[in-house]
Amino acid sequence: MFKLSAISALIAATTLVAPTVSLAQEKISGGVIKIGVLTDMSGAYSGNVGPGSVLATKLAIEDFGGKVAGKPIEMVFADHLNKADVGASRAREWIDRDGVDVVTELGNSAVALAVMNIAAEKNRITLVTGAGASRITGEDCKPNNIMWVYDTYALAKVGTLPLVQAGAKKWYFITADYAFGHSLEGDGMRFVKEGGGTVAGSSRYPFPGNDFSSFLISAQSSGADAVAFASAGADLQNEIKQANEFGLAKKQKLVAMLMSITDVHGVGLDAAQGMNFAETFYWDMDDETRKFSQRFFKELGKMPTALQAGQYSAVLNYLRAVEKSGSDQTDAVMKTLREMPIHDAFARNAKLRPDGKLIHDTYLVSVKTPQESKAPWDYYKIVKTIPGDQAFIPLSESKCPLVK
C-alpha cells in the first residue's frame, strides 16, 4: 500500500513539475538567443556598416561571455545588396526557418522599412542602427522597432541650421534618388528655410553613382553659398573628390548631410578639412569611447563609425534587456528596454521613446586641417554638443500613430 501511494505521489509530483520546467525553457525560444545582422557587406555603404557592424555585434556578444540567462547567443549575418526585396526575403527566412529573435543593422532605409513590416507581422524585434529615414519612427513606426543611432531630421537640423545662421543662405542639394536621400533632402531643405535661407535647386542621381560631374556643374552655376550632399558612403566620397577637382570648394561650402570618420579617412584631410556635419559618436571623446574603439581597431584596423558603435550599443542593450527580463519574448524585451537605463560607449544616459526613437546627444563636428591632426584618425573637433531632446523631432510633431 505504501509503495503504491509513493509511486502515485511521484507521478503526481512529476505531472505538476513538468509544465513548470517546460515554461522555464520556453522563456528563451529554442533555448538560444539568435541575432540576425542584415547589412551592406559589399556596396556603397559597406565601409560605414558592413563587416564593421558584424564585428561590433561580435564584441557585444563577447561582453556577455557568449551567453544570456544561461543560454547561448548566436549571430548570423547576410548582405542585403541594398535591395529591399533581397533584405525582406532573407529576414523572412531567418525568422520562419532559423528562429531569429531580432533583425538588426539594416543599413539602407528601403531595406529597413521592408524588414520592419515582416518583423511586425511575425512579432519579432527590429533594431535599426544603419538606416536614417525619419519615417522609420514617423508614419511607418512599429511597436517592436527601435531606431538607435540617427535620423535625417537630426542630421539635417544639426548639420544645416548653424551654417545658415553663420551666413550660408543659399543652398543647392545633390541627392541619392531613394528613400534615405529623399528624406535627408526634405529635412535639409526644411531647416535651411526655417533658418532664413533659400534653396537654389537640387539634382537627384540614380543610386549608387560614380560620375557626378553634371550635377556638380549645376550646383556650381547655381551660385549657391553651400552645396549639400544628401548621400553617404562611397557616393559621398566620390562627390567630395570630384567637387574639389571642379574647384567648388574654393567658392562654395561643401556640406555632408551624413559623413562618417571612414569617409574622412577615404577622401583625406586635404579634401575634407573644414567640413561641418552632425555626428553621433567620435572614438576620441573620452576613456569610454577610446576603450571600445581601440578594441575595435585591433581587430579591423580602423576606427569605428558612429553606425558601428551604435550597432555595438544596440545589441549590448538588447542582450541586457533579455538578461533582465529573463526572456527573449518580444513584448518582455521591448518593455524592459523602455524602462531600463541606457548608457555605454555610444549612448550617454539615453532614453527610448514610445515611437521607438532612442534619444541621445548629437554633436556638430568640424574636420581638422592636416596641420591640426596630430595622429592617424585624429580628424574631428567637436564644435557643439546638442542634447537629444533638442536634436530629434519632438513627439508633438511626430507622425507616428503610436504616440497619437
Overall CATH architecture of the largest domain: 3-Layer(aba) Sandwich
Task: Quote the average pLDDT.
Answer: 92
H/E topology pattern: HEHEEHEHEEHEHEHEHHEHHEHHHEEEEH
Rg of Cα set = 23 Å
Shape: globular
How many E-type strands?
Answer: 15
Total domain modules: 2
Low-confidence stretches: 1-25
| DSSP helix fraction | 40-55%
Q: Helical element count?
A: 15
The assigned structural class equals alpha/beta
Q: Describe the largest sheet.
A: 6 strands, mixed
| CATH superfamily membership of the largest domain | Response regulator
How are the strands of the biggest sheet laid out side by side? 2-3-1-4-5-6
How big a fraction of the residues is strand?
15-25%
Describe the structure.
- This protein has 404 residues and is of the alpha/beta class.
- It folds into two domains: 32-150 and 285-360, 3-Layer(aba) Sandwich (Rossmann fold), CATH 3.40.50.2300; 153-284 and 363-391, Rossmann fold (3-Layer(aba) Sandwich), CATH 3.40.50.2300.
- It contains 15 helices and 15 strands.
- Helix 6 (179-194) links the parallel strand 7 (170-176) and strand 8.
- Helix 5 packs parallel to helix 6.
- Residues 1-25 have low confidence and may be disordered.
